[in-house]
Amino acid sequence: MATNKPKVRNTVGDHSNMASLFKPVISYAKTVGNAASDYGSAWKKAFNASADYTAGANSRARAANARLENEQGQLLGAILQGRKYNNKTKKQIKK
Hints:
The protein is mainly alpha-helical. Helix content is 57%, strand content 4%.
């Protein structure tokens, strides 16, 4: 006698029971969310570095602005083309 118990999610990130229609949508949302979070962090650092007036502030501001531009490109790539990037190496993940 077989019982049909519903599958239970073990964690919030467990999408094994999800309909296959929604899996790409969740993946896209996670990718865009991560890219937006990284962009927000880079924006905050660039803003603070631009307001700094201590010794060496110009070089720190240039580095922070360069990182901001990279993160902006990754955010736009994630939104418009669904691209994924490795958080550590900042390189695109090929499908």
